[in-house]
Amino acid sequence: MNKRKIYLDYAATTSVDPLVFKAMLPYFREKYGNPGSLHKFGQEAIAALDKAREIIAKSIGANFNEIIFTGSATEASNLALRGIIKTLRIFDAGKIGKNQKYLIQNPRIIISAIEHESILETAKDLEQDGIEVIFIPVNKEGVVDLREIKKSLNDQTVLISVMYANNEIGVIEPISEIAKIISEFKKNKKQIYPLFHTDAVQAFQFLDCNVNNLGVDLMTLSAHKIYGPKGVGLLYAKGLKPLSNELARKGILFNNSFLKPIITGGGQEFGFRSGTENIPLIVGFARAIQLVGQKKLKELKRMRKIKDFFYKELRKAFSDVQIFNCYNTLPNIISVYFPGFSAQDVLIKLDQEGIEVSSGSACLMRAATKSHVLGALGFKNERILGNVRFSFGRYTKKDDIKELIKRLKKVLFN
Ligand code: PLP
Questions:
Q1: Cβ of 35 less than 6 Å from ligand 1
Q2: Distance CA 407, CA 386 (A)
Q3: What pLDDT score was predicted for residue 257?
Q4: Which residues of the chain have pLDDT under 70?
Q5: Which of 31, 106, 200, 217 has an alpha carbon within 20 to 30 A of 312's alpha carbon?
Q6: Ligand 1 touching residue 365 (CB < 6 A)
Q7: Is 326 an annotated catalytic residue?
Q8: Residue 116 Cβ < 6 Å to ligand 1
Q9: Pocket of ligand 1, candidates 221, 222, 358, 372: which has the most ligand atoms within 8 Å of its Cβ, to mutate?
Q10: Is 387 in the pocket of ligand 1 (CB under 6 A)?
């Protein structure tokens, strides 16, 4: 097939920016030292790791030791949820391993009903272990119900996790408003819990992710959605006190930390995530964050224009098309339903025409399960199974949209 390929699945993943690739390259072959080694080679790796951490911390308004690198955003969110729950077991001094007791008797976690699987499945797994999980509904525009959040807070609530922007429908959640509700609750109750976590994986490219402006205690990011490499993510954790390597190795925690590692070993990442740091990927992550930061506002405006154009052209071409487009969504994600067509139909036909889109979440496609996000919006089965997600990115031009409409007409009208 000699048709120009058009990739419109940027919310699933992005290609590595050439400048990111260039920054990473030396760390694969020339500077391949282990940051745990004492020799010069190791020191070179530590310097690269420190610099990457510094760049990233600065870009989100965090401190150096508040950034924990992980193998993915999924792992970072697992660390947030599981790591907090693990600290609830305190040890009696002198009787380590025995007499474990809970500071909080009935721990509660609150999450939104439209979280990514990395949060949703982790919360469900913790539920199996006896943790109470409250799922906060969303309105028909996909926005979490703030009154329900308020109502669900109790003195056993240890964590609230609400994503900044959704990967399937692009809806942006009111993170700083939720932060205010939580901080008010904590002030009144004079307690340190609940902590507030947000998954900002999709939001980072376009929205303000300064943790102080957002008012979050924990935040998850991923490199491969922002033109960085796959296989690296991070967890920001506010005011984290590094564990000593020795104690971390034994899995023993200082009582003053609210997080416990879920991967133990050599004590890397201040004791919170053992395993030799992947320097090339981490360096690439930092470079990707720098580059996205430089272009954020400009890209936001450009992407909005592309989305508006697509919206209008789509309406013109297909009179019965249903578009999920509440005003508060990311500028690059648009969820569409062509009545009478299943998502699979549209996806396969478009793929044959050289256009790559998806039905929602990348994981869902493979598992062929029904989207919990669209379910939470109250969509009927037919609408859920017919949902097509178009997601635009740095290389999407107006011409691509014109071409998309042309090919859509061809596959849907023929
Ligand atoms: N959170 C959101 C909102 C996502 O869209 C994704 C990726 O699909 C993830 C988390 C998981 O990211 P990673 O692939 O780095 O684990």
A1: no
A2: 18
A3: 73
A4: 1-2, 89-103, 242-256, 361-368
A5: 200
A6: no
A7: no
A8: yes
A9: 222
A10: no
Rounded to whole angstroms, how far apart are CA atoms 386 and 380?
Answer: 10
Please tell us whether the domain made up of 6-15+296-413 is placed in CATH 3.90.1150.10.
yes
User: What does the pLDDT look like over 296-342, one tens digit per residue?
Assistant: 999 999 999 999 999 999 999 999 999 997 779 999 999 999 999 99
User: Which one of the listed residues 363, 365, 405, 412 is annotated catalytic?
Assistant: 363
Residue with tokens 């020191």: 43
Distance 244 CA to ligand 1 centre (A): 30
- What was the pLDDT predicted at 272? 92
Q: What is the pTM of this model?
A: 0.93
Q: Decide if 222 contacts 212 (C-beta within 8 A).
A: no
Average pLDDT over the chain, rounded to an integer: 90
Tens digit of pLDDT for each residue in 163-209? 999 999 999 999 999 999 999 999 998 888 999 999 999 999 999 99
Determine the CATH number of domain 18-288.
3.40.640.10
In terms of residues, how long is the chain? 414
